[in-house]
């Protein structure tokens, strides 16, 4: 019993039983009070004549009461064993086997020679402790979004920072051999009200300004080459090949700031400034259908996929820049 309560707590319970009419003071911050301690079964004793060989030591008797057995069986894993078959062989469920072996998971790789506990402990008697506990807990704050037609779509600002609140919670717990089997909240007191988070979200649409949400720049297709080092040099964007048709689309609203061929290996290319910190580039085009200064909308046709410049086949080379720095296009594309 003293594994689950201290001698002082046990003495306090006994003292209250002698004076049952005295009021029990409320528990305070991070305080725990034992209300009652009992055993799950009535324990009695009697004198019996037995073979001396069957007499247990005090330690063995305590272990037998606590565990229901004097010996915990171990199983040594063999080649080809799986958790399900080990559990079945010892009349256990998989869940019971996992509980008996701390750290063991359902997808664990079993190595031959590992020892597993396969004995479910069924104590003859268990200690039940009723406690009263007080603790301070955080209260989550609400989140509110306000739309503002004067702010550009895609822009947000914090009008009011959210702050967690605090509450004092008094609970009654029932523990059986240290495991909580019942919890009930008796009283809650708000100590500090939470502060709502208020975010202002822009809704204003401007044809030449993107909102940062990109569409796939081709009609289907697959990524034939990702961003990263390739052939000892940095491949700054992604390559998209084999679409359902060769139309190239603007990833977001913006202004065309370049449309042509510089002879830099990209062949025919288009650069769109989305006027929100993002720029996108579309390269190796067979033809270009927009001009510098033109406003384009998300998903509108801007050219035809091709293989101009340094290209080994028909595909789109697509790059994305944020505030002048190149980023992985796949982080923006849905």
From TrEMBL:
Domain G5: 125-205
Any Pfam family the entry gives: Peptidase_M23
Region annotation (Disordered) ranges: 1-29
Listed InterPro entries: Cell_wall_metabolism_enzyme, Dup_hybrid_motif, G5_dom, LysM, LysM_dom_sf, M23ase_b-sheet_dom
One Gene Ontology molecular-function label: metalloendopeptidase activity
Keywords from the UniProt entry: Signal
Protein name: Membrane proteins related to metalloendopeptidases
Organism: Mesobacillus boroniphilus JCM 21738
């Amino acid at each position: 019993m003293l594994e689950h309560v201290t001698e002082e707590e046990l003495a306090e319970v006994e003292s209250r039983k002698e004076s049952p009419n005295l009021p029990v003071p409320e528990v305070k911050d991070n305080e725990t009070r034992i209300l009652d301690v009992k055993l799950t079964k009535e324990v009695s004793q009697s004198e019996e004549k037995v073979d001396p060989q069957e007499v247990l030591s005090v330690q063995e008797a305590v272990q037998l009461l606590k565990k229901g057995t004097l010996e915990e069986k171990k199983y040594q894993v063999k080649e080809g064993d799986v958790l399900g078959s080990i559990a079945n062989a010892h009349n256990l469920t998989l869940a019971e086997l996992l509980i008996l072996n701390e750290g063991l998971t359902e997808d664990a790789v079993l190595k031959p020679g590992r020892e597993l506990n396969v004995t479910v402990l069924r104590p003859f008697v268990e200690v039940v402790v009723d406690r009263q506990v007080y603790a301070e807990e955080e209260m989550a704050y609400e989140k509110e979004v306000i739309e503002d037609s004067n702010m550009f779509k895609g822009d947000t600002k914090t009008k009011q920072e959210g702050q967690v609140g605090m509450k004092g919670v008094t609970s009654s717990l029932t523990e059986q051999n240290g495991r909580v089997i019942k919890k009930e909240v008796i009283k809650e007191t708000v100590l500090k009200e939470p502060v709502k988070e208020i975010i202002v979200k822009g809704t204003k649409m401007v044809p030449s300004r993107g909102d940062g949400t990109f569409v796939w720049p081709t009609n289907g297709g697959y990524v034939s080459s990702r961003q990263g080092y390739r052939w000892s040099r940095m491949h700054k964007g992604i390559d998209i090949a084999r679409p359902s048709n060769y139309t190239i689309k603007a990833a977001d609203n913006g202004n065309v700031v370049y449309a042509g061929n510089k002879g830099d290996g990209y062949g025919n290319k288009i650069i769109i400034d989305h006027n929100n910190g993002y720029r996108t580039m579309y390269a190796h085009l067979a033809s270009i259908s927009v001009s510098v200064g033109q406003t384009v909308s998300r998903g509108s046709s801007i050219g035809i996929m091709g293989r101009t410049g340094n290209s080994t086949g028909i595909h789109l080379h697509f790059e994305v820049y944020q505030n002048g720095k190149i980023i992985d296009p796949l982080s923006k594309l849905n």
